[in-house]
Each structure stands twice: as structure tokens, then as C-alpha cells.
Amino acid sequence: MASRPGPTSTQGATMKCGTLDIESIQATLNSRRIGQRIEFKAETSSTNDEAWLYADEDAFDGLVVFAEAQTAGRGRRGRIWQSHRGASLLLSIGISGQKHSIAGDWLSIIAAIAVHETISKFSDTRPTIKWPNDVLVCGRKISGVLVESRQSQSETRNHVVGIGINCLQHQGHFDGPLANSATSLELLSHRPIDRSAVAIHLLHALDQRLAHPETLNQESLRSDWLSKADALGARVTLEHNSQQHTGTIIDLDPTAALVLQLDEGGIRAFNAADTSLVSTEYGS
Ligand code: BTN
After folding, report:
1. What is the pLDDT of residue 282?
2. Residue 258 in 3-state DSSP?
3. In CATH, what number does 7-228 get?
4. Percent of residues, the chain, with pLDDT higher than 70
5. Which residue, judged by its Cα, is nearest atom 11 of ligand 1?
6. Exposure letters 96-129 (e unless 16+ CB within 10 A, then b)
7. In CA terms, which of 82, 106, 211, 271 is 20 to 30 Å from 76?
8. Pair 66, 199: CB distance under 8 Å
9. 130 lines ligand 1 (CB under 6 A)
């Protein structure tokens, strides 16, 4: 379910709840890095918390933790992330800075691209990425990504990439403001959604990009992201350090910051950590 600043309640709607098949995910993946080890929790505070528990172990790099329910799921910029038990794909991936250093902001862009590909495959729709890493269909949020970074004991930066994808929710599961702002794969697809198949596709897409990070080409990531975001030329208003700025998106810079031609004059890059989008008008 999309993140928002307050709690939501679970009322009325029933959930068709196929279980995640961790064995088949692991067997089908044939992973080179992402999903070498997979952990499953029926319930946890947050899959990001679970992944951080392994930060000092060798198994941290490429570790994937799935959960069916989170009691304190978190979103970007201090928001909470709530989802009905068994409805979403809730997972976190450990990325060790010792293996190869990738900036957290680029990991967030890579995750958004992989989620975008996955949603396209399972929803028969053309999603868009909202900077930096929300995935939307027809303006409704279907997935969010939260990348957390911490210094490791060896002074490198470790990262946990947390991903939530709405899968089995029906309209009645989205209440309050989410009723008009969230959607799920089940609502968009004519076929039943198998969350294990969604997980395999997503992890494969991530593994393809992260198995050999030294070969990652920032330029091709940048243009891939820009094409999926329909971002170039979009008009946005964003908030940075409590100040609003309006302008036109002209690029994604080498740190994955959004570059705007500002209405107030000048060109400026805004980093994801300190900035939130207030409104976006994508070009047609
Ligand atoms: C956002 O849209 O603000 C990001 C939401 C990220 C939610 C996922 S669900 C799995 C992982 N565990 C968390 O606590 N958060 C992320």
C-alpha cells in the first residue's frame, strides 16, 4: 500500500492470500548476487530492520528478506508504510559496500527501473516512475522503494534496499486518501497475480544489474530512468529545506539528483534525500 503520513485501518474487504513460495523463488532465480540467501518472516517490524541484522555477516551482500506483514513498515521521509497481511510483496535486499561501492541514490534508481519492468510485465499497463523511485499506474501509486545506508565496520557504506509492491489489494483495501491514490497488480491485471512469480521477476531484474556493478553504466541507467519516468520536460513543484520551487525537469545529474530549469531563474539539482515532490505534470 502506498505510504502516507498517518495510519490506515483494515476494514471490510477480504483478501485472497496465496502464500509466497520461497523454495521455488530460490530454485528458479539462479542468482549471481541478489537472492543468494533468502529469509522469510511471517511478521516483522520492517524487512529493512531484518536485513540490517545481517550487516556484519558475509551473507549480508545479496541477502533478501521477505515478510508477509510489517508492524512498523517505513517509507521515505519519515512516512509509514502499511499493508494488509499477505497482500503485498514486502522485501529488503542487503548490498555490501565491500563488494563494490554504489551510491545509495543510484541504487534507488536501479530499484525503480527493476520495479517498473516488473509492474509492466504483470499489469499489462505502462507504468511511470515518479522521482526518485515511486512507481505509478495512471497516477496511482503501486510501489515504493526505501534505500537506507549505513557505515559498516570496515568504513564502507552498506545499503538496504526496501521495496513494497501492492499485489492482491482490491479497491476496498485502500481507505482514506489511498482510495484515490493507490492501486495494485490485481486491480490492473486480467490474470490472477502470483506473488512468487512477481518476486522472481523483480529479483532477476535486480540481479542482472547488480551482479557485476563494476560494469554499470551510469549514462544508460540515466536514460533508462528518464524514458520510464517520462520526466524530461515535466513541470514539477518540489519542496527542499522547507522552500517550494517550480520548474521543468531537464536532466538527472551524476548523483541521481533531479535537475530543474527553475521558473525563478537558474538551473539547480535537487537530491532525493532532502527533497519531496509536491506536484508533477508529465508531458503527454
Ligand atoms: C515509500 O514509498 O515511501 C517507500 C516505501 C517502502 C516500503 C518498503 S516495504 C518493505 C521495506 N520495509 C520497510 O519498512 N519499508 C520498505
Report:
1. 64
2. strand
3. 3.30.930.10
4. 92
5. 162
6. bbebbebbbbbbbbbbbbbbbbbbbebbeeebbb
7. 211
8. yes
9. no
44 ligand 1 Cβ < 6 A? no
**pLDDT bucket at 218, cuts 50 / 70 / 90:** confident
Region 231-236: mean pLDDT is 91
Residue with more model confidence, 12 or 197: 197
What does the DSSP 8-state code read for residue 68?
Answer: S
**Mean pLDDT computed over 264-279:** 92
Domain range summary for the chain, segments of one domain joined by +? 7-228, 235-281
CA 151 to chain centroid: 22
- Tens of pLDDT along 45-95? 999 999 999 999 989 999 999 999 999 999 998 899 989 999 999 999 999
Burial bucket for residue 273 (CB in 10 Å: 0-12, 13-18, 19+): middle
pLDDT at residue 11 is higher than 70: no
Q: What is the pTM of this model?
A: 0.90
Please answer whether residues 270 and 244 qualify as being in contact, where contact means their C-beta atoms are separated by less than 8 angstroms. no
Its CATH class, for the domain covering 235-281, is mainly beta
What is the C-alpha to C-alpha distance for residues 137 and 171, in angstroms, rounded to an integer? 14
What are the CA-CA distances from residue 208 to residues 28, 86, 167, 205 (Å)?
Answer: 14, 27, 23, 5
Nearest CA to ligand 1 atom 7: 164
| Strands, E assignment, the chain | 38-41, 64-67, 88-95, 128-130, 134-137, 140-151, 157-166, 235-240, 243-252, 258-262, 267-270, 275-281
